[in-house]
């Protein structure tokens, strides 16, 4: 059992675990939607004074910030105590492709060092990529009314057509950037 | 008590995001290249179980374990523009940063500190949506 948990989790264990998290949140009277935290953060930072979209009782959403804080601690525990190796075994063809694009640690690391090592803080190109990505994630998630957890998991589990449209949008946008922009950006 | 419950759920979620590798930039890149089943298997099996869970909770009108109130699983507002356009913007960001709003917090805990830039700019992006909301097609 412990041996199993220390390895990267296979998809058929990971997926049901995500559904279990969905169940726990529904069962405790809440919903599974992580991007709401970004709106709550805006409200908590005082954005409600300027923009009506952020005028709501953000303190009622504190439970979700607590979930996010738990996710930080969970990431720490998983990386430091629940992993023999954190290298992600992506497919050989992707490794070769990323190597040719200058990402040499593909297949040997959890994240590309060019974007997520401490040097990225002092590399303008890395900062630009991270900022661009983050901005669109935050803007798009709120525009669409949810992200992967809110639409792809919660919404589709409840057979919501709007969530299906949103997920199709995720893939139109993602495929476009992945195939036509990333080769020049990285 | 409630805080501890949600904190524990968050820890479980964070561990799951990290160990499933859904928080890895490489896995998101690979997913958009259709070169592995891994991410599709995760989302598909989560959906399969999630649909059963959602169906059962609704069918039996389950009550919240914490305060006994009825569990309400709200329908999404109808329409398509905001979902399609918003979804596409989200997809741009997801493919570039390899991070969606849950895994962002997980990778921070795992020690990939530049993700702080993503979290900060995602918060800024959310703020900009709030600013522009009235001018965008929904």
Give a short overview.
The complex is a heterodimer of chains A (186) and B (138). Chain A is built from 9 helices and no strands. With 186 residues, chain A is an all-alpha fold.
Give an account of the 3D structure:
- The complex is a heterodimer of chains A (about 190) and B (about 140).
- The mean pLDDT of chain A is about 95.
- Chain A is mainly alpha-helical and about 190 residues long.
- In chain A, helix 3 (about 35-45) crosses helix 4 (about 60-80).
- Chain A starts with a helix and ends with a helix.
- Chain A is built from nine helices and no strands.
- Chain B has helices at about 1-20, 25-30, 40-60, 80-95, 100-110, 115-130.
- Chain B is built from six helices and no strands.
- Chain B has about 140 residues and is mainly α.
- The radius of gyration of chain B is 18 Å and the shape is globular.
- Chains A and B meet through helix 2, helix 3, helix 4, helix 5 and helix 7 of A and helix 1, helix 2, helix 3, helix 4 and helix 5 of B.
* E-strand count of chain B: 0
Question: SSE string of chain B, helix = H, strand = E?
Answer: HHHHHH
SS strand fraction of chain A: under 5%
- Tell me the radius of gyration of chain A: 19 Å
- Portion of residues in helices of chain B? 55-70%
What is the succession of H and E elements of chain A?
Answer: HHHHHHHHH
Name the poorly predicted regions of chain A: none
Total of domains of chain A = 2
Q: Hey, roughly how much beta strand do the residues of chain B contain?
A: under 5%
Q: What is the chains' assembly state?
A: heterodimer
Key attributes of the depicted protein:
heterodimer, A: 186 residues, mainly alpha, 2 domains, B: 138 residues, 6 helices, 67% helix, globular
Q: Layout of SSEs?
A:
The complex is a heterodimer of chains A (186) and B (138).
Chain A: H1 2-6, H2 11-27, H3 36-44, H4 62-81, H5 92-100, H6 113-116, H7 124-144, H8 148-157, H9 161-185
Chain B: H1 2-19, H2 25-32, H3 38-59, H4 81-97, H5 101-109, H6 115-132
